[in-house]
Amino acid sequence: MYSRIAGTGHYVPERILTNAELEKIVDTTDEWIRSRSGIEQRHIAADDQTTASLAIEAAKRAIEAAGITPGDIDFLVVGTTTPDLVFPNVGTIVQEALGIHGCAAFSVEAACSGFIYALSIADKFVTSGESKNALVIGAETLSRITDWTDRSTCVLFGDGAGAVVLQPSTEQGIISTHLHADGQYKDLLYAPAGVSKRPQGDLNKEFAIHMQGNEVFKLAVKTLGAVVKETLEANSLDHEALDWLVPHQANKRIIEATAKRLGMPMEKVILTVAKYGNTSAASVPMALDVAVRDGRIKRGDLLLAEAFGGGFTWGSALIRF
Length: 321
Ligand code: UT7
Known about the structure:
By secondary structure, the chain is an alpha/beta fold. The chain contains eleven helices and 13 strands.
């Protein structure tokens, strides 16, 4: 028994923030942002939008694509670093908005790897027979934890959501997932304000993402290279078997380095970072849905999805679409 992706969806808020606009806010240039990260623009949630509102729209699209109704969903998990509230969890807010009652609904907090973690968990519930229609979402409003005076981070992040519906199948679907974490790097990428631990000083500034970009970059390249190798080896596959790489969209240069290690040409890599920036846990399902809807990813294609983020956490999924 496998779990198979029956439908995908994504949603981004209407407001687009361009590099030209950022030039007016901080000491940066369009040229610097494009050449260092590959980002040209990002979408920013409206004041009345939250992580749940973006998740709901992505979920509706995935449910429609799967040809089911919200009432069929029997398991709901959201990967996010920017939950609406401490509790109730984002999963239950999405659940209520979709008119679903009673099934398990929760969120997973694993920074940019949140969707891969959520997918791996949902896969276990579907393959064990406990769930027939699992809704797996990655959703973020990173703009709410961005320090808009810090040029080293504010040019990188964006808001959005992506979702998939998993169903049981005798045909291959999620073939394997590989999850990892190592807390020793926590000081390289973090948002200090929490619930039981609160920072002193300027809360707006302290609440925001702190990142030693260059160090994170080096470790991301190394770690993602290792996890894609692990995934191929675990399945006795050569990189040539892969049809698509669906990477976390943090930085075009990190993605290019991973593709190079895999020996994959960039034509086989799904890139959304230029339009959406880094949307953390939302980036993998957003990229997946973009490529499914534009016809690049087709039924039967073999995909390798990967992500790396704060914690550090990282992971991958080998998927027969
Ligand atoms: O999603 C979770 C994981 N996150 C990541 O994987 C992100 C990893 N890191 C990165 O993507 C890259 O490190 C960045 C895009 C954040 C930065 O690129 P970089 O090539 O590593 O640049 P850098 O941090 O080494 O900075 C180079 C220079 C510095 O100036 P000096 O010290 O050389 O004079 C920075 O102050 O660029 C300067 N700089 C900027 N200049 C213009 C930093 N941010 C900006 C900016 N505009 N926005």
